Every structure is written in structure tokens, then in C-alpha cells.
Amino acid sequence: MKNNLLYIVLLFFSIQFYGQNNTVIGKWKTIGDETGEAKSIVEIYEKSGKIYGKIIEILEEKNKKKVCVKCTGEDKNKPIIGMTIIKGLSKEGTEYTNGKILDPSNGMLYKCFITLESKDKLKVRGYIGIPLFGRTQYWLRIKD
């Protein structure tokens, strides 16, 4: 009886640990698709059942104080650090979709989906119209 209880407890903690490592929630280092260089740190979080991501750090010293001059609406002329760039994604199977992503460098808001490629690699696809017309970045998880 004690062995069965021990196995159940171990199984529970194993499932909890596995589930935490297979989520998009966390901090991610963004990698520019054109340069291949690290650009920023984005924290992805859940709010009211939807997924959001905000820039918490800019890695290039010259860009740390930039504001989004090309943005429209509530993001116009706001500091890029602290800006929510992933907005309202919903989980559908293994993919998070039906939301938007903002590119602060050009102020454009794109449709978006994200997928875990592995526990530490995130595929981020922004597009206009259909996913064929867009670009993909791969972000790397920051381990605390």
C-alpha cells in the first residue's frame, strides 16, 4: 500500500514538472531573423485564458530607450520596454493562434501563431492574410 502511494506521489510530481517545461509561459530571448542576433527578452504570460507577451529587456544598448514612433493607437510613442507585443493568443492543440504580434521596428500588427519546437525553442510566425505571407523567428527560453 505504501509503495502504491509513493508511486502515485512521484507520478504526480513528474507530471507537474513535465507540464511546466512544455509551456510557452516564461521568458524568451528573441533572435532577429535577418541578423541571427539576440535582440530582446520577452516575457510570455497568461491572462484571462489568453496568451500575451511583453518586452522586458532590450539587449542592444543603443535601442534601450527607444519608443514606438511608427505604432498606432495606444502603443504610439510608448517605450518599447514594457510594451505588450503578443496579444490574445488562444491554445488550439499544440499551437497558440488567433492573436496578433506587434513589430515595434515598423509599427505593424500581424496575425500570429506560436508553437513549441522543443521545451526551450519557440517558433513565432507573424503574417498578413495567410501564414504563407509572413516571417518566422525562433526564440530561446531563458532559464531562471
TrEMBL record:
<dbReference type="Pfam" id="PF09917">
    <property type="entry name" value="DUF2147"/>
</dbReference>
<protein>
    <submittedName>
        <fullName>DUF2147 domain-containing protein</fullName>
    </submittedName>
</protein>
<feature type="domain" description="DUF2147">
    <location>
        <begin position="26"/>
        <end position="141"/>
    </location>
</feature>
<dbReference type="InterPro" id="IPR019223">
    <property type="entry name" value="DUF2147"/>
</dbReference>
